[in-house]
Design brief:
Elements: E1 5-11, E2 14-21, E3 26-30, E4 32-37, H1 46-51, E5 57-61, H2 62-67, H3 69-78, H4 80-84, E6 89-93, H5 96-102, H6 109-118, E7 123-124, H7 137-156, E8 163-164, H8 174-186, E9 192-194, H9 198-202, H10 206-219, E10 226-228, H11 237-243, E11 247-250, H12 252-258, E12 261-264, E13 267-270, H13 282-286, H14 289-295, H15 305-330, H16 333-341, H17 345-356, H18 358-362, H19 383-392, E14 400-404, E15 416-421, E16 425-427, H20 447-463, E17 468-473, H21 478-482, E18 489-492, H22 493-496
Parallel strand pairs: 4-5, 4-11, 5-6, 7-8, 9-10, 10-11, 14-15, 14-17, 17-18
Antiparallel strand pairs: 1-2, 2-3, 12-13, 15-16
Helix pairs in contact: 7-8, 8-10, 10-17, 12-15, 15-16, 16-17, 19-20
Bound molecules: guanine (GUN) and zinc ion (ZN).
Pfam families: TGT
EC number: 2.4.2.48
Pathway: tRNA modification; archaeosine-tRNA biosynthesis
């Protein structure tokens, strides 16, 4: 891996970074969304993508350009930037997607990389094999071997200052993804797309998307820029960024518009069924759904309903991306993911899968940020809770210790009295004002927060087998009390009238 990526800020496994793209002479802020531009159908002029939507980078397909007689010569003459009218960074794909769709393409990695160089691409792609989900292991391994050869051919190519993608495949086998990530990372290629995600994304299999991303990331260098190939629905951006993705590409904005579909941060709606637009982008502010429906086939306005719908779709997508970046800056990305997870059950599966990897995410999660908000029982599984439990096992504990959710009793026989705050569990009062113990939690806590607090008590008890521990709890659920070790004496504060 060469050094073109700098990470500026972290939250969970998400980051704000800067990808230097030397051939374009620009540096792109990540997370970045690359609108997919079909070289034959410019739904929205690339110049407008930059000026009105803020796109710093886009992606187009060199294989389509190479196979289309009508444009190939012109793109070779003018160069891609002039042809498209875009002076930001341009990534090009190789035809792998067509390979996956049609089973065969008539170009090698060596040829298509040379073609990408000739048309002036800034980030080129070899012919990797996008192995679909759920195939048998033999096929996944065999195709991974072909992808490895493609990466080696890309490494051997004479590419000057053009960056190169090193796609990470492996179908739905996490160990193969991880191995592929490790192999890709060891090449001197530059950007690391997690591939063949489109079938999973199209069927909202977000739990498996997160598994694939996490597996690839375990193999990749932590500083590697990671692209989630084919992902650009605004609903899942926060989740994918929190899992560690830096680049996205959206064909969804244009493809969905073609079918009359309207994207939102909680899913996809049909223009046909809409009475109101919930959005305030220029398109939604100036039109009603009924007006857009009436435009169909009219062709009198300067833009068709499909183009306007595509513009709305892109506006909400970039808006969400800015919201994700702001969340990283203020340290509440996981709260944003939690909100998005309420929009669709498949997103909730994605969040729960991400939290299965809280130990990995904890490693890049800042130790201090804005207040932790407990907004759902998934909050009990956040990396901050786990980190607190790890820290508990390192704190010095006196012989006789009271852990209590209420204030310290005025007279008592303990050596010390610590606070207990679900979902974290016990801590010395001196830590009360430190992150994450300053958390805002609801008055009416759920069992998951109590169970997590009980696990904190267990962690403390395990690390201090010789201390006498007493727990004063506010009417905890039976399953939380079950998680408290037997040797810890418990008192229900409700029954004591405190
Ligand atoms: N576009 C969407 N998925 C893929 C992939 O796996 N590989 C390539 N090269 N392009 C893609
Ligand atoms: Zn809108």
């Amino acid at each position: 891996m060469r050094d073109h990526f700098e990470i500026r800020d972290h939250d969970a496994a998400g980051r704000i970074g800067r990808l230097e793209v030397p051939r374009a002479g620009v540096t792109v802020e990540t997370p970045a969304l690359l609108p997919v531009v079909n070289p034959n159908v410019l739904t929205i002029e690339p110049r407008r993508l930059a000026e009105e939507f803020g796109a710093e980078m886009l992606i187009t397909n060199s294989y389509i350009i190479r196979s289309t007689d009508r444009i190939r010569g012109r793109v070779l003459d003018q160069g891609l930037h002039e042809f498209l009218g875009f002076d930001g960074a341009i990534m090009t794909d190789s035809g792998s997607f067509q390979l996956a769709e049609y089973g065969d393409i008539d170009v090698t990695t060596e040829e298509i990389i040379e073609f990408q160089r000739q048309i002036g691409s800034d980030v080129a792609t070899p012919v990797d094999v996008p192995t679909p989900p759920d195939v048998d292991r033999d096929r996944a391994e065999r195709e991974l071997e072909t992808t490895r050869t493609a990466l080696a051919d890309a490494e051997a190519a004479d590419t000057g200052d053009m960056l190169l993608n090193a796609p990470v495949q492996g179908s739905t086998f996490p160990d193969l993804r991880e191995e592929a990530g490790r192999h890709a990372s060891a090449t001197d290629l530059d950007v690391f797309p997690v591939g063949a995600m489109v079938p999973l994304l199209n069927s909202y299999r977000y739990a498996e998307v997160v598994e694939a991303v996490r597996a690839a990331k375990r193999g990749l260098d932590p500083d590697a820029p990671v692209h989630l190939f084919g992902a650009g629905h605004p609903m899942m951006l926060a989740l994918a960024v929190a899992a560690g993705c830096d680049l996205f590409d959206s064909a969804a904005y244009a493809l969905m518009a073609r079918d009359g579909r309207y994207l939102t941060v909680s899913g996809t709606e049909h223009l046909e069924e809409m009475e109101y637009f919930p959005c305030s982008c220029p398109v939604c502010a100036e039109h009603t759904p009924a007006e857009l429906r009436q435009m169909d086939g009219g062709g009198t306005a300067d833009r068709s309903a499909e183009e306007l719908l595509a513009e709305h779709n892109l506006h909400v997508t970039f808006e969400e991306l800015r919201r994700v970046k702001a969340a990283i800056r203020s340290g509440d990305l996981l709260q944003l993911v939690d909100r998005r997870a309420r929009g669709h059950p498949a997103m909730l599966d994605g969040l729960r899968t991400l939290l299965d990897h809280a130990d990995e995410i904890e490693r890049t999660d800042p130790v201090s940020k804005d207040a932790f908000f407990y907004t759902s029982h998934e909050s009990a599984r956040r990396p901050e809770v786990r980190r607190h439990h790890d820290r508990l096992s390192r704190l010095a504990v006196p012989d006789r210790l009271l852990l209590t959710e209420s204030d310290a009793p005025s007279d008592h026989e303990y050596d010390a009295v610590w606070r207990v705050k679900p979902p974290f569990g016990p801590f010395p009062r001196a830590l009360s004002e430190t992150y994450p113990l300053t958390a805002e939690v609801p008055e009416r806590l759920d069992g998951a927060a109590q169970v997590a607090a009980a696990e904190g008590v267990a962690s403390l008890a395990d690390a201090n087998p010789d201390s006498d521990l007493t727990l004063g709890h506010d009417d905890w659920a039976a399953r939380a009390l079950d998680a408290v070790p037997d040797r810890v004496e418990t008192e229900n504060l409700r029954h004591l009238g405190r």
